[in-house]
Task: inverse folding
């Protein structure tokens, strides 16, 4: 009932926006800029690494994808780690791991050491992808949660853009120095973030799980829009943790189960029907985020533009910067739309646009590949289709994957549930990034994008049937929402009306 009172209160409550909670989410999301930079910079750095270290295409694929396999391990460890040491210190740990990885890659005299640094950074990626959205979701009000929880994805895009810009400028330096500076410079923000994050408050929901009710209430008063909202959120969190709503003690002792023990069993072995649907929704949305081909475009855009007919290296890198600008601009817009339009509606619009853009891209690249002469119209159509695809991905599937999966799990299952989603995300990211060159060589570059278009159709169908609207709901209402919507075929508005009955 707490969230309804927040929504149905005075108009003042609905229009106020807590700047302190926003600042906390922005600082926590900075870890995602470092990850995004590492992803974006590698797309251009691989051109110079291949030339300098004399490595084969297979080794390039492994270098591109190994980050995600290591992130898989990092994400699975991160869930339990964040339950044990807290959300804030988990972000500090991720920053330190990134720092070590960046130093190793910046030094990298050999392919083996470069791979070691990439793997180290990958573990940090696993931590970062899991913890930043969870922390942002847990400090935010239901009315602004979509905006704040989509900030990590916006920061990833900013990082990717910075990586592309870094490629362009550092690419003009000597071969042996340029790519090492591209990769090693990420150590600087990692060090700064490790210290800056200590100024943030801990997640109030984690504090309640530790029995630290007094500390949790203090944080809620800081990150809520009003004292009434803070008290309502505090009651809901206590109820979700199995604590009497009227308990006034500052510190209570909780059972092991309330503190998060036995979570894996409850998630995977004996889940309730609602938890099973939540898990399927989280795994599905993470699977389709990368199965629809975004990593192929982000990581291999210079190769794709080359196949379309752009030969000059400077123009290739500039066209790639355009991908980063498009991604960042549209994710920025999505952060403002997600709480107004709704998660479900944006997802369906986004995926529909991706289907159309991927079909056009597959056609234009096929025409460009079959022609012995340079087709200006096919090259232009390919560039436009890539930018449209990235735009539609960025207004929906990109940011909403992280918003949705970080908000739907019950309190005690949230960290590990989110870590499962991240693990699936990284497996698919690694699968696409490590196989794309081999796939397009086997079925042509155009054929590979027709394949992604087909997968996007499956994604649209899954989102339509399996994902109810979560806009405006408190985190404590999610389990009830999924209990009432075994087969949600209605619109977001209808789902919200039904859940309020």
Result:
């Amino acid at each position: 009932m707490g969230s309804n009172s927040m929504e149905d209160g005075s108009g003042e409550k609905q229009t106020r926006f807590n700047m302190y909670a926003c600042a906390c989410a922005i600082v926590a999301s900075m870890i995602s800029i470092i990850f995004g930079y590492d992803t974006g910079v590698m797309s251009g750095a691989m051109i110079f690494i291949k030339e300098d270290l004399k490595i084969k295409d297979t080794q390039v694929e492994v270098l591109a994808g190994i980050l995600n396999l290591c992130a898989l391990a990092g994400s699975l460890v991160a869930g339990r780690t964040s339950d044990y040491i807290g959300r804030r210190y988990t972000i500090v740990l991720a920053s330190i791991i990134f720092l070590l990885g960046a130093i190793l890659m910046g030094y990298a005299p050999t392919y083996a050491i470069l791979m070691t640094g990439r793997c180290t950074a990958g573990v940090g990626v696993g931590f970062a992808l899991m913890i930043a959205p969870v922390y942002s979701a847990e400090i935010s009000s239901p009315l602004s949660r979509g905006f704040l929880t989509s900030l990590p994805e916006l920061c990833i895009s900013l990082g990717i853009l910075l990586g592309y810009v870094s490629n362009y400028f550092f690419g003009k330096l000597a071969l042996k120095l340029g790519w090492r500076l591209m990769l090693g410079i990420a150590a600087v923000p990692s060090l700064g973030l490790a210290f800056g994050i200590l100024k943030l408050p801990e997640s109030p929901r984690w504090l309640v799980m530790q029995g630290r009710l007094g500390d949790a209430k203090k944080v809620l008063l800081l990150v809520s829009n009003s004292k009434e909202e803070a008290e309502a959120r505090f009651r809901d969190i206590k109820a979700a943790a199995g604590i009497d709503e009227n308990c006034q003690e500052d510190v209570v002792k909780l059972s092991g189960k309330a503190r998060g023990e036995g979570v894996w069993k409850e998630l995977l072995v004996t889940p309730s029907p609602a938890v099973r649907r939540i898990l399927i929704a989280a795994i599905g949305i993470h699977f389709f985020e990368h199965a629809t081909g975004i990593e192929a475009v982000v990581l291999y855009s210079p190769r794709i533009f080359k196949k379309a007919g752009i030969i000059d290296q400077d123009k290739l890198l500039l066209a790639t910067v355009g991908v980063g600008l498009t991604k960042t601009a549209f994710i920025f817009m999505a952060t403002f739309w997600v709480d107004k339009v709704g998660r479900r509606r944006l997802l369906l619009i986004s995926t529909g646009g991706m289907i159309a853009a991927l079909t056009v891209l597959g056609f234009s690249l096929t025409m460009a590949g079959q022609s012995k002469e340079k087709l200006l119209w096919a090259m232009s159509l390919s560039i436009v289709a890539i930018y449209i695809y990235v735009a539609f991905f960025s207004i929906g599937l990109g940011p909403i994957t992280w918003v949705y999966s970080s908000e739907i799990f019950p309190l005690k299952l949230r960290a590990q549930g989110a870590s499962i989603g991240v693990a699936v995300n990284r497996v698919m990211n690694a699968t696409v990034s490590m196989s794309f060159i081999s796939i397009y060589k086997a079925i042509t570059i155009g054929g590979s994008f027709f394949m992604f278009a087909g997968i996007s159709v499956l994604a649209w169908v899954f989102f339509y049937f399996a994902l109810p609207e979560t806009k405006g709901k408190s985190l404590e209402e999610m389990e009830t929402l999924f209990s009432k919507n075994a087969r949600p075929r209605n619109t977001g508005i209808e789902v919200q009306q039904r859940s309020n009955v």
The mean pLDDT is 83. The chain has one domain: 19-207+260-500. Residues 19-207+260-500 form a domain with the Growth Hormone; Chain: A; fold (CATH 1.20.1250.20).
